[in-house]
Every structure is written in structure tokens, then in C-alpha cells.
Amino acid sequence: MLKVNDIDVYYGDLQALREVSIEVRQGEIVSVIGSNGAGKSTVLKTVSGMLRPRKGAISLNGKDISHAPSSRIVEQGISHVPEGRQIFPTMTVLENLEMGAQFPRTKQVQHETMEQVFGYFPRLKERLDQKAGTPT
Ligand SMILES: Nc1ncnc2c1ncn2[C@@H]1O[C@H](COP(=O)(O)OP(=O)(O)O)[C@@H](O)[C@H]1O
Ligand SMILES: [Mg+2]
């Protein structure tokens, strides 16, 4: 279970989250809904270790991850997919896809996962060598 417990998060002096708590149990899908600027991305960035809570804690299966480095958090199965077109623009399409398979667990099934993705987005397969930030 992922447990976000009563967190306060700041950008410098600006408080973005106040006493936010969320629980995600095994197999559950939880949506966070709110207007622009409400703090949704801030919650996710704090879960993935890009920001730190000034108050409260985040735990995964009972283990505190509030201050673990992002690399450790990813190893434990938490992935953060940035919104919009936040890819690595100077890397190729293939290299961008490979970024999602950097851990043993995902590397093992990299080939199958890529084929599955090409099924959804066949254009990617045609453009594997293209720099991801270029339009054509
Ligand atoms: N890098 C930042 N520096 C300062 N304030 C930020 C930054 N990112 C977001 N904020 C502020 O934090 C609040 C929450 O933003 P955010 O989590 O991005 O909202 P949402 O994802 O729900 O649209 C907003 O008031 C926003 O202006
Ligand atoms: Mg957002």
C-alpha cells in the first residue's frame, strides 16, 4: 500500500500542499482530481522524490520513502510519467522508450513491452531513429 500521510509541501516559501493524505491499496486505481494549480502534480512529484514533504510522511508497504532518492523509489515499483510532451528531445525515439526499461524487472520484458507499445502507436516503430523532439 502507498500511503501519503498528512503532507505539507513548499516551493521555497510558497506552500503548495497542506495536510494532504491519500491511500492506494494493492490493485487499486486512485485518481486525483482538481483545478489547474490545485496541487496534483506536486503530490506526484513528492511521491516520486522530486520534492520533499516539510511535514508528514510517505510510505510504501510500511516503509518510509519520504526521503529516499528517486532512484530507490523507482526500484520499488513507483513510476512517474510526466504530463504533456516531457520526453528527452535530443534523444531518439528508441532511446526514449529504452529509458522506461532501466531496471532489471522492466529490462527483462523490454522486448515484449516495446512490441505492445508499437501495437498502440505504430508510428513510433517507423521513427525509432528520429530525434524525439523533431516534428517530421
Ligand atoms: N516550480 C514551482 N515553483 C513555485 N510554485 C510552483 C511550482 N510548481 C507549482 N507551483 C505552485 O504550486 C501550486 C500547485 O501546483 P501544481 O501541483 O502544479 O498543480 P496542478 O498539477 O494541480 O495543476 C500552484 O499554486 C503552482 O503555482
Ligand atoms: Mg499538474
CATH class value of the largest domain: Alpha Beta
At CATH level 2, the architecture of the largest domain is 3-Layer(aba) Sandwich
Residues in β-strands, percent: 15-25%
Helix count, DSSP H or I runs of 4 or more residues? 6
Q: What pattern of helices and strands is seen along the backbone?
A: EEHEEHHHHH
- Tally of individual domains: 2
The major beta sheet can be summarized as:
4 strands, antiparallel
Number of strands: 4
Fraction of helical residues: 25-40%
Question: How are the elements arranged and paired?
Answer:
Layout: E1 2-11, E2 14-24, H1 40-47, E3 55-60, E4 63-64, H2 70-75, H3 93-98, H4 104-107, H5 110-120, H6 122-126
Antiparallel strand pairs: 1-2, 1-3, 3-4
Write up what this structure looks like.
- This protein has 136 residues and is of the alpha+beta class.
- It starts with a strand and ends in a 10-residue tail after the last helix.
- The chain is built from 6 helices and 4 strands.
- It has 2 domains: 74 residues, P-loop containing nucleotide triphosphate hydrolases (Rossmann fold), CATH 3.40.50.300; 53 residues, no CATH class.
- 29% of the residues lie in helices and 21% in strands.
- Strands 2-1-3-4 form a 4-stranded antiparallel sheet, with helices on one face.
- Magnesium ion binds next to helix 1.
